[in-house]
């Protein structure tokens, strides 16, 4: 039987804190090995230095040397592959890097590091890596990731399952030059009708944010309605998201208690800030738009039409009955007139003589 191999990739790129990712270790047939757990984080020459990721600001053509630390929490020696690749944000807002079978074209190609490192059980290995910015690099922010990984494959005949597990962190490089922030906002709201005519509906407020500039942006959106802000300022949905240059993200806001008045206008406010290499946020003017959505009161229209039909039916029924009564009155009058005429004719002829009886 042919042996098929399916490769899966598991990746945890560190954003806020260093995290060890447990994975299944390779095992020989009939042998059971303990799982491998490890962590990777920025470091100095002595070891982990407490940073969550690396932030750099470099001129075109500049080179800098950084360090990474790989910690092996397992009970056996492990050799890890070290890779770097272009970075990006997923639709859910998590930072990731291109898989090993994809080709990097930007900051992932600027990083040079040893291909692998062997770490003793319970030990830590520190490796230097360099970031070399090309002479023709465009100003602005460039994202990459660097990771330590292991590859495991199930043994046996038939279909095989391969898993590449990676743990790493992001490397953000700001190339000096003109900082040109830009944000495009596209809205597509939709009114959702409540079919209870005595209850308001809601607006599902979808909007697309696109970073059209060359630097990272921290952005969040909100809508004002009925004296309230949606989403609520203290909610998780209200937290700012990060957009790399060229990123597009679709977000939604639920605005409840909106009566269908035909045309509804809601004010959308997008707050934005440039994320600087030191992690601070430089505020920009907010983007404000009045967004209009059609809110047709279909349940109310149905009720009005039903009432109109009922009133019309009552009106025509009353009118028909009135005509019937008028016809009966006319018929009674006509019958009375004819009876009266017959009585008059009889009286005009006088009594019949006894001889003619």
TrEMBL record:
Residues 332-341 have a biased composition (Basic and acidic residues). The chain crosses the membrane at residues 298-317. Residues 1-20 form the signal peptide. Residues 332-357 are annotated as: Disordered. Keywords: Membrane, Signal, Transmembrane, Transmembrane helix. This is DUF916 domain-containing protein. It comes from Agromyces fucosus.
């Amino acid at each position: 039987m042919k042996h098929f191999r399916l490769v899966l990739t598991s990746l945890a790129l560190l954003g806020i804190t260093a995290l060890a990712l447990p994975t299944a270790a390779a095992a020989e047939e009939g042998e059971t090995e303990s799982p491998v757990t490890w962590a990777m984080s920025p470091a100095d020459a002595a070891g982990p230095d407490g940073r969550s990721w690396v932030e750099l600001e470099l001129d075109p053509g500049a080179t800098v040397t950084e360090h990474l630390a790989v910690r092996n929490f397992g009970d056996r020696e492990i050799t890890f592959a070290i890779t770097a690749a272009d970075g990006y944000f997923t639709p859910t807002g998590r930072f990731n890097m291109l898989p090993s079978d994809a080709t990097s074209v930007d900051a992932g190609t600027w990083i040079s590091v040893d291909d692998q490192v062997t770490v003793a059980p319970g030990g830590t290995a520190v490796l230097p890596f360099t970031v070399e910015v090309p002479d023709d690099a465009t100003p602005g922010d460039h994202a990459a990731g660097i990771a330590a990984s292991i590859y495991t494959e199930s043994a046996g005949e038939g279909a095989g399952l391969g898993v590449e597990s990676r743990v790493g962190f992001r490397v953000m490089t700001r190339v000096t030059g003109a900082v040109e922030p830009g944000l495009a906002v596209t809205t597509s709201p939709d009114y959702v009708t409540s079919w209870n005519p005595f209850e308001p509906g809601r607006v599902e407020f979808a909007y697309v944010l696109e970073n059209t500039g060359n630097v990272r942006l921290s952005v969040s959106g909100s809508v004002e309605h009925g004296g309230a802000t949606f989403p609520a300022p203290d909610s998780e949905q209200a937290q700012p998201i990060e957009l790399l240059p060229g990123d597009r993200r679709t977000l939604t806001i639920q605005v409840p208690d909106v009566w269908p008045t035909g045309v509804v206008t809601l004010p959308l406010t997008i707050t934005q800030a440039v994320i600087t290499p030191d992690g601070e946020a430089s505020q920009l003017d907010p983007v404000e738009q009045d967004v209009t959505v059609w809110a047709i009161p279909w349940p109310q229209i149905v009720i009005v039409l039903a009432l109109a039909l009922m009133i019309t039916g009552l009106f025509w029924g009353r009118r028909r009955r009135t005509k019937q009564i008028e016809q009966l009155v006319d018929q009674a009058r006509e019958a009375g007139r004819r009876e009266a005429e017959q009585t008059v004719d009889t009286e005009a002829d006088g009594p019949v003589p006894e001889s003619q009886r």
